[in-house]
């Protein structure tokens, strides 16, 4: 072992405090990277697991033509239940499993109806190992399998959350049942699909058929092959039954995965972004710390040069220390990051966001990435200042009193300004386009703004904080002046310290703007679109037949318009439209483009996007074909309107057309049509609160009907939006915690670096309280600086993203000003909290000892 190697290792052990703070910086950086990668990898693997467990054991699925079997609906013509017996008799079929499934409403252990908000409440048939295509069957955890007509089992997660343990009694209503059925929970079971909000109940075969099917058809039939491959069986059945859709199990699973991936596209973009952010923040914290450490050791390194060490030896000794610190910090950071990911997963599941509940996934590449990044970034962070230190003449280095460097910031400011101008230009381009092109412009502009902060941020410190610094001097005297001076003295370090907060708070601005804009869009649509006083909806998707007659007897109700789900074939496509029984314009406002605002007998309204897609115009004749018997009904396009996603879109016909497609209630019997919403109007002068209470009381025995006023519709949408953004806010919490810890660590190192200066101030009469106050003010300034930059960037990017998503239904841009103000004020408070320990240490600096060390 060479002499300088020994010096390097002994130097690490001799300065344990400095070693600890250096390792902490690497731990902070790598733990953010590890936490982000493990958490996002866990979510990704959990959803992949759901896909893998879908249609488990299924070789072939037979379903109605044109139905998405990855998400079959109850408004489907289905396949005859009798076909299952015919298929079971084939020699190339080992087992047959008709799908008996549907949505369910049930009461929890406190008697409250379980709401479908973030995850569905479903029911199905219990299948033991010998009867299921899945060899494992449905494993019972407690109790036993359902056997009689009044028995059911429920997934374990839902049983615990809903207070429905084995032995409990509840009430159940399904889309097919004629009324409320009392059920006893006889057991709980485990499933890979269990999530924080998922609810699924299973019944014995006869009960499931009675409650969840019409007794003649099922959504699809699954098969297991015998003696042939899945593809061979699929080909044979497709040839024999051309009227049905025949898919292999692999095709069904792939379709389900595609559907999940599409649904998660929005989330995935942010998860990838957080991985990149984790890397940026980690690199910044580590580089900032090591730059300070090497700057503090200039005299020590100069002494090595003076006694004969070469530049390369000095540089290599620093690099060796960095390798040791990087590897140690990377390993510890990996462990801390895994712990943080566990806490995030626990919090998200506790929140009931509807994301799959699965164990942590720590991939080998995550382990390697975190440790390698920790080592490489630490070495790179140490190498640049080490080279600079090695090139500094020994005598000059020994005269250095401070690690700060006076640097001409003009060039950095010019580059930062250029990047900002380009970013703003891209945001302007994004505001004039929609879709992919706009999204790309937003992404590139965001990257340019981050680079602008990295490069040009130091040039912004004095202009941004100078006025605040003068106010601090006037308010807090010497302590305020010292705090402001310390911030401005080394603008590179100030920017690097604040960078993690810039990123974290910037993401708060982006997601806060997105969330506020989503809320604003929904609120505007409800305020302008909903003319009725109340809307009735069903958590099972189907309302009891006597719902309308029930509300007619409620005092204060003047009328209702029933909105039906109405499937039909248009040409070769299966489409789902809306059937209206009543006057639509009395209950709902449509933004008319052309023609009428009510379809009228034999007419059809259609939103402008659907009309453009199919080439329909006012007066166009469209033939709708019944899915029940194939009978055609021709209608005239009488009007077009602006679509309102999540409220009303597609084509709309009145009850006369609906009854011609599915006469005498046959559509309802077959499960093809069902009331989706009932818009309820009240008599003039009626007390809305009293009418709502009366409606709820009258409908409570039906269980499946919920009453919402305009605010209730908004609140329901707000719950879904909050759940959607919950995982992103969890990651943001991680980013901000790491940023604050980074500030603490940098301030602690800064105190060490300024030990002689603080000692001189104490020796000349500065009180301990004044020293502490100066550190508090310095930290608060850094925090406010980072938060202000982050919010400006975040709100700008968030507003541009909302515009880019206009074709996805976002129509209003809303800046969360309350959140912005709270974040700015909170950042100052956080800065003071982050400075507590460094300030106490600075205040207790012994004056004479500190001066002697200089």
TrEMBL record:
Q: What is this protein called?
A: FtsX-like permease family protein
Major site of localization recorded for this protein = membrane
> Keywords in UniProt for this one?
Cell membrane, Membrane, Transmembrane, Transmembrane helix
Membrane topology note: Multi-pass membrane protein
Q: Where is the ABC3 transporter permease C-terminal domain?
A: 272-394, 730-847
**Compartment(s) of residence:** Cell membrane
| Superkingdom per UniProt | Bacteria
**A Pfam family matched in the record:** MacB_PCD
What are the residue boundaries of the MacB-like periplasmic core domain, all occurrences included? Answer: 20-238, 494-697
Bilayer-crossing regions:
19-39, 266-290, 318-344, 364-388, 409-430, 436-461, 496-515, 727-752, 775-800, 820-840
Report the family membership: Belongs to the ABC-4 integral membrane protein family.
């Amino acid at each position: 072992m060479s002499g300088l190697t020994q010096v390097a290792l002994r130097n690490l052990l001799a300065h344990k405090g400095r070693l600890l703070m250096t390792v902490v910086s690497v731990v902070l950086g790598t733990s953010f990277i590890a936490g982000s990668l493990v958490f996002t990898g866990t979510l990704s693997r959990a959803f992949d697991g759901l896909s893998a467990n879908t249609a488990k054991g299924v070789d072939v699925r037979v379903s109605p033509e044109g139905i998405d079997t990855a998400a079959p609906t109850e408004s489907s013509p289905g396949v005859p239940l009798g076909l299952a017996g015919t298929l079971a008799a084939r020699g190339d079929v080992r087992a047959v499993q008709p799908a008996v499934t549907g949505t369910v409403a049930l009461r929890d252990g406190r008697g409250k109806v379980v709401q479908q908000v973030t995850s569905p409440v479903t029911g199905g048939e219990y299948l033991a190992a010998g009867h299921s295509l899945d060899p494992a069957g449905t494993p019972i955890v407690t109790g036993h399998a359902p056997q009689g007509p009044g028995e059911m089992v429920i997934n374990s997660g839902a049983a615990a959350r809903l207070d429905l343990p084995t032995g409990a009694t509840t009430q159940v209503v399904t889309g097919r049942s004629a009324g409320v059925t009392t059920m006893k929970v006889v057991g709980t079971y485990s499933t890979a699909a269990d999530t924080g909000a998922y609810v699924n109940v299973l019944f014995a075969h006869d009960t499931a058929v009675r409650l969840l099917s019409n007794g003649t058809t099922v959504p699809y039939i699954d098969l297991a092959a015998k003696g042939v491959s899945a593809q061979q069986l699929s080909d044979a059945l497709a040839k024999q039954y051309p009227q049905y859709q025949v898919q292999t199990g692999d095709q069904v699973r792939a379709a389900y995965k595609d559907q999940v991936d599409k649904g998660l596209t929005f989330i995935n973009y942010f998860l990838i972004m957080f991985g990149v952010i984790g890397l940026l923040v980690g690199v910044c914290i580590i580089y900032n710390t090591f730059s300070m450490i090497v700057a503090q050791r200039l005299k020590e390194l100069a002494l090595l040069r003076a006694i004969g060490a070469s530049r390369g030896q000095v540089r290599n000794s620093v690099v060796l220390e960095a390798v040791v610190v990087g590897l140690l910090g990377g390993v510890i950071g990996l462990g801390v990051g895994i712990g943080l990911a566990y806490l995030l997963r626990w919090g998200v599941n506790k929140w009931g966001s509807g994301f799959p509940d699965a164990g942590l996934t720590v991939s080998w590449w995550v382990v390697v990435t975190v440790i390698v990044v920790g080592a490489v970034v630490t070495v790179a962070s140490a190498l640049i200042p080490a080279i600079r230190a090695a090139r500094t003449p020994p005598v000059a280095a020994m005269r250095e009193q401070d690690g700060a460097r006076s640097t001409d910031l003009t060039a950095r400011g010019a580059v930062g300004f250029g990047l900002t101008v380009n970013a703003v230009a891209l945001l302007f381009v994004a505001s004039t386009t929609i879709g992919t092109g706009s999204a790309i412009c937003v992404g590139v502009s965001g990257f340019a703004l981050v680079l602008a902060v990295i490069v040009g941020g130091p040039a912004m410190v004095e202009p941004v904080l100078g006025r605040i610094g003068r106010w601090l001097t006037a308010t807090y005297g010497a302590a305020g002046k010292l705090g402001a001076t310390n911030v401005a003295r080394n603008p590179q370090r100030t920017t690097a310290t604040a960078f993690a907060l810039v990123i974290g708070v910037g993401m708060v601005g982006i997601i806060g703007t997105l969330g506020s804009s989503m809320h604003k869009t929904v609120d505007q649509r409800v305020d302008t679109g909903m003319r009725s006083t109340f809307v009735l909806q069903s958590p099972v998707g189907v309302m009891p037949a006597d719902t309308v007659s029930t509300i007619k007897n409620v005092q204060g109700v003047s009328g209702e318009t029933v909105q039906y789900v109405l499937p039909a074939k248009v040409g070769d496509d299966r489409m789902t439209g809306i059937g209206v029984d009543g006057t639509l314009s009395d209950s709902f406002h449509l933004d008319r483009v052309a023609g009428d605002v009510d379809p009228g007998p034999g007419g059809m309204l259609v939103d402008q996007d659907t009309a453009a897609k199919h080439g329909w115009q006012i007066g166009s004749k469209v033939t709708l074909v019944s899915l029940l018997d194939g009978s055609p009904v021709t209608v005239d396009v009488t009007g077009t309107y602006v679509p309102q996603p999540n409220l009303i879109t597609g084509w709309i016909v009145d009850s006369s057309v609906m009854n011609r497609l599915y006469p005498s209630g046959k559509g309802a019997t077959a499960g093809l049509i069902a009331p989706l919403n009932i818009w309820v109007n009240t008599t003039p002068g009626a007390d809305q609160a009293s009418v709502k209470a009366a409606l709820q009381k009258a409908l409570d025995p039906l269980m499946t009907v919920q009453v919402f006023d305009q605010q209730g519709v908004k609140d329901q949408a707000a719950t879904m939006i909050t759940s959607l953004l919950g995982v992103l806010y969890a990651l943001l919490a991680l980013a901000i915690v790491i940023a604050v810890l980074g500030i603490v660590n940098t301030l602690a190192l800064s105190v060490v670096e300024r030990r002689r200066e603080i000692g001189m101030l104490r020796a000349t009469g500065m009180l301990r309280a004044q020293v502490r106050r100066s550190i508090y003010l310095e930290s608060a300034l850094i925090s406010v600086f980072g938060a202000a930059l982050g919010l400006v960037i975040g709100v700008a990017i968030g507003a541009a993203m909302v515009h880019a998503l206009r074709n996805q239904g976002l129509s209003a841009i809303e800046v969360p000003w309350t959140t912005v103000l709270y974040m700015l004020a909170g950042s100052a408070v956080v800065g003071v909290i982050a400075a507590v320990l460094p300030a106490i240490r600075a205040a207790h600096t012994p004056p004479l000892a500190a001066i002697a060390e200089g």
